[in-house]
Design a protein that fits this description.
Chain B: One of its GO terms (biological process) is signal peptide processing. Chain B: It is an enzyme of class 3 (hydrolase). Chain B: It is a single-pass type II membrane protein. Chain B: It catalyses: Cleavage of hydrophobic, N-terminal signal or leader sequences from secreted and periplasmic proteins. The complex is a heterodimer of chains A (148) and B (180). Chain A has 148 residues and is mainly beta. Helix content of chain A is 4%, strand content 49%. In chain A, the strands form three sheets. In chain A, strands 5-4-8-10 form a four-stranded antiparallel beta sheet, with no helix packed on it. A three-stranded antiparallel beta sheet of chain A has the order 1-2-7, with no helix packed on it. A two-stranded antiparallel ribbon of chain A has the order 3-6. Chain A has one domain. The N terminus of chain A is likely disordered. Chain B has 180 residues and is of the alpha+beta class. Chain B has three domains: 42 residues; 100 residues, Umud Fragment, subunit A, CATH 2.10.109.10; 32 residues. In chain B, strand 4 and strand 5 form a beta hairpin. Chain B is elongated. Chain B starts with a helix and ends with a helix. The mean pLDDT of chain B is 87. The chains are: A mainly beta (148), B alpha+beta (180).
Chain lengths: 148, 180
């Protein structure tokens, strides 16, 4: 993790975090009608009215500057019909993980959660958070050199 | 004599019928306005229904889709939500997704948005020197959506002749409709 001048945002130096992650997820598919009938407790996400899911991995944490911070690190659009099983390894964040200030250094509790926005063919647009999240601690010092 | 009386009757009846039709029309327009105002109050948004104007949120939303918004004061702004906002000084509402949120203990919140279909975040769209959006810039949160329906408004905007023709037809229909 570095302390870098952020040219895309405000002029002060902010913490920039680098995170690599694996994502394994099984988004349930409603194709199999029989499965739906027998497993009444199963939550079928991809039903006839779901056009796509907008999946995103967000990091949530608290700092001295801000009581709540949320940064989207990665996102993916999953259309109905796409493979509902995700097995991604060693992923780097798609977007720069800049803090608003220097709150990443020594921060022990960054929570990574996978959520998704259900986009229907027509109707309500719910936001759902997946079960299971990971806590990530950041080190107490900056790295001066990094090959990324 | 009797013929003039008959014509007089006819003319008077037509005038009364005309007034009746005009009042009918005015009532329809007022009811529509009241429903719209009611929606503004119930949703808390100055613009509870918006039409998507660009392709920056494809494949979720396309130009011409209709979005239903709410803007409740106590609703927090969170990453992943689809918000409709206006850049200070500009009239056009933009529909994009929240990708960064920084909220202070006192509720002061600043956030960054990006269109799903865009490569970069929206900082280029904001005002000169503005790096974040605030609650006051938000018109509403997208809660529901209907595809294609908003195309009519876009067509009316792009082809004003179509709009006038439609209004003329509607006006003629209401004024000339005969109650049975």
């Amino acid at each position: 993790r570095k302390n870098v001048e952020d040219f895309t945002g405000p002029r002060e130096r902010s913490d920039l975090g680098f995170v690599t992650f694996d994502i394994t997820a099984d988004i349930l598919n409603g194709k199999n009608g029989l499965q739906n009938f027998w497993n009444k407790n199963t939550l079928i996400i991809f039903d006839w009215n779901v056009k796509q899911l907008f999946l995103y991995l967000s990091a949530e944490y608290s700092t001295k500057n801000n009581a709540l911070n949320q940064v989207v690190l990665w996102d993916k659009i999953m259309l109905r019909g796409d493979n509902p099983r995700l097995s991604l390894k060693d992923m780097k964040s798609k977007y720069f993980f800049f803090d608003d200030g220097n709150g990443l250094k020594g921060n022990r509790n960054i929570t990574l959660t996978l959520s998704w926005n259900v986009v229907p063919n027509a109707g309500i647009l719910p936001l759902v958070t997946g079960s299971g999240h990971v806590s990530v601690p950041f080190p107490d010092t900056y790295e001066t050199t990094k090959s990324y | 004599g009797a013929a003039m009386d008959l014509f007089g009757d006819l003319r008077r009846m037509n005038k009364r019928q005309l007034y009746y039709q005009v009042l009918n029309f005015a009532m329809i327009v007022s009811s529509a306005l009241m429903i719209w105002k009611g929606l503004i109050v119930v949703t808390g948004s100055e613009s509870p229904i918006v039409v998507v104007l660009s392709g920056s949120m494809e494949p979720a939303f396309h130009r011409g889709d209709l979005l239903f918004l709410t803007n409740f004061h106590d609703d927090p702004i969170r990453a992943g939500e689809i918000v409709v906002f206006k850049v200070e000084g500009r009239d056009i509402p933009i529909v994009h997704r929240v990708i960064k949120v920084h909220e202070k203990g006192n509720g002061n919140i600043k956030f960054l948005t990006k269109g799903d279909n865009n490569e970069v975040d929206d900082r280029g769209l904001y005002k000169e020197g503005q790096n974040w959006l605030e609650k006051k810039d938000v018109v509403g949160r997208a809660r529901g959506f209907l595809p294609y329906v908003g195309m009519v408004t876009i067509i009316m905007n792009d082809y004003p002749k179509f709009k006038y023709a439609l209004l003329a037809v509607m006006g003629a229909y209401v004024l000339l409709k005969r109650e049975s």
